[in-house]
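Need the bound structure for fe (iii) ion, inputs here:
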Amino acid sequence: MAEIVGAYFTSHVPAIGGAIHKGLQQEPYWKPFFDGFHKVHEWLAQVKPDVAIVFNNDHGLNFFLDKMPTFAVGAAAEYHNADEGWGLPIYKPFAGHTELSWHIINSLVEDEFDITTCQKMLVDHALSIPFELAWPDVEAWPVKIVPFAINTVQHPLPSAKRCLALGQAVNRALQSWTGDERIVIIGTGGLSHQLDGERAGFINRDYDTFCMDNLSVDPAALTKDSIHEMVRKAGTQGVEVLNWIAARGALGEAPVQEIHRNYHIPISNTAAATMLMEPA
Amino acid sequence: MAEIVGAYFTSHVPAIGGAIHKGLQQEPYWKPFFDGFHKVHEWLAQVKPDVAIVFNNDHGLNFFLDKMPTFAVGAAAEYHNADEGWGLPIYKPFAGHTELSWHIINSLVEDEFDITTCQKMLVDHALSIPFELAWPDVEAWPVKIVPFAINTVQHPLPSAKRCLALGQAVNRALQSWTGDERIVIIGTGGLSHQLDGERAGFINRDYDTFCMDNLSVDPAALTKDSIHEMVRKAGTQGVEVLNWIAARGALGEAPVQEIHRNYHIPISNTAAATMLMEPA
Amino acid sequence: MSGPQNAMPPIPGTHLFDGDAAAKGFELNAMCYSFNDAANRQAFLDDEEAYCAKFHLTPQQREAVAQRSVLGMIAAGGNIYYLAKLAGIFGLNVQDVGSMQTGASVDDFKAMLFAQGAGQSYEEAHGAMIQKEKVHG
Amino acid sequence: MSGPQNAMPPIPGTHLFDGDAAAKGFELNAMCYSFNDAANRQAFLDDEEAYCAKFHLTPQQREAVAQRSVLGMIAAGGNIYYLAKLAGIFGLNVQDVGSMQTGASVDDFKAMLFAQGAGQSYEEAHGAMIQKEKVHG
Ligand SMILES: [Fe+3]
Ligand SMILES: [Fe+3]
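Answer from helper R.:
Posting the output first, comments after.
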């Protein structure tokens, strides 16, 4: 039976990609953030996943306001990055695990999640940067992926409770999968930040700490706030923590332990965080 | 407060559009079907709706397999028809009720329906033909619309139970709407038919009768079958009855009475049916 | 694919357009979806080979399209809603397509539908149609 | 719009991209979405007026774009994820955009972020930034 080896969470700020591209990892600005990844590399080398279920959000590359899904699930054989408008280098493509995608899709619809199924899906920095951070300098990614895109762009957004439930439903799907893959769960984005409005530059260490302290041991604690309250506490883009919550759900309801945490303010306009969790 | 005046259900076979275009309503082949609409015209003239909530399905005009939503909701100011590939005349456009769309969308996401929100949406014969049948010879449609597209194309399809629940959630949204519109609910498609495979031409009068007998008084009876069983009983395209079930849900859980029914085999490859229901 | 429906007894003569089919048929359905545009329909008519190549049809798909085999296209992952747009290029309607798939003449296929209208079950009407094809075919 | 969030107390300096905004901003966001394509970015640079006309920007949107006013674009329904692609055309990053919206210099905006890193609350760091702008601005 497939094994869920654990979960990896990280911020995905576009500027990180620039820093990697320019080799700035040891610069004083970047070092406190990149230093948080030694442990991630070590852990991944040890748990050796071959599939990643990734919860992230599109930033206007694949989805537009003509058709904006609440939850989109990839079912493609390949996923490509593309120009996001800044003319930056294009990230490496990803291999999909289509059979597992369809297994999860069938299970989710049976479980009354009204997903949008994507046989084509461009992936943006929210997926690529966490991979560049986790597996630097590889020729090709060592894992196949099943990507989820959660709407964090256009309100109404799904509630944190619904996102946790989505993740838990994905966990049930993984439990009924008969393959023998080693599966890592990935949640990307956040933590607190706000790019738009007069409150641009807003960061909230207390709320981020609350989220990180509870995510492993009591994820339901993160689902008590409405989206509106989450925006107030985390910032307009800080709601990307929904991806983390869904990813935590996909770890399942058995006990989970935090094995690593790094938190640094600021990376670009963002409180940047990295975490690892394992089944307890 | 807005009032739900009732619901109108009809098949939407493309050939009906051809018959209207050619003025064949009194031909022996078509008369038994079109005669079922005198009562519809009379009823609509009497209840005078100004908004229609329409549950239908796309047939490969607006959605493709790159992004296939389970439930899509329109939030456009205008909806256009377009060439569906047969080079037929293009149907008239529809005015949207964007405020009501967004009210429903907000309410549905709050109610944990993971809809895809469409600020642009082409509508095909599944929406246009029921309107051509209901309001023949009008210059412009007398109602604004909020369209729902339910995935009946790519399995997994949402269960009948989930579609009924969607409709019921739409009803709750309408109950909390503070406008004073007169709202008609429309469900289109079906009844039993199968276009593809060696079983093409399959029709099932018994199952259709079961559906029509129960839809008003006990819609939950239609939700006991799995999608697979519904395909067996209704045919691969007969699952369009999901649109009828969702529409029935949108009438709410208070008693409803059937006030009109017409059923005729065949129109094209289909068992064609028309119904009207009102709050009891 | 391990969807729940795979545990279900199959439905004779019926091919669910599920994940397996959707994955297999993507290119064919993409080509057919393009036929919503009249210019694309004309391009197909002008140079079928080139148009199919542009959409990277699989050999199985290309063969089924070349043979105008609806069942072949379905076996290659085609979905009837998209395939209907290809059929439309040749002026074929859903009864023509029904005839092609059942092996009956269009008239006999229509008679089978009328028979169901007159009260026969599908099994009776279909049985009679098949019998007739055997005699006349 | 009567969404549940309208009952909520507003969040200062914060504009939720809700249905009202999405409806209002559709054309502006559509234009910005087109900037994923380098050729479209160049077309905008070559003839901004014509490019904006092509997307049927509202007068309010056109004005905000002409003035490079990020807050104006947001008031006109712009969403920051799409607007960032317009900003990218001018080589502006999210800190430049933050500076434009807060009225602080880019350096002071960055200092405000560092202050939060050093343990100040947003309110403290933001207050100090605004004070500084008053003195130097
Ligand atoms: Fe992000
Ligand atoms: Fe249909």
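Comments: Residues 32 and 69 of chain C are 14 Å apart (CA to CA). The domain at 14-91 of chain C is CATH 1.10.700.10 (Protocatechuate 4,5-dioxygenase; Chain A).
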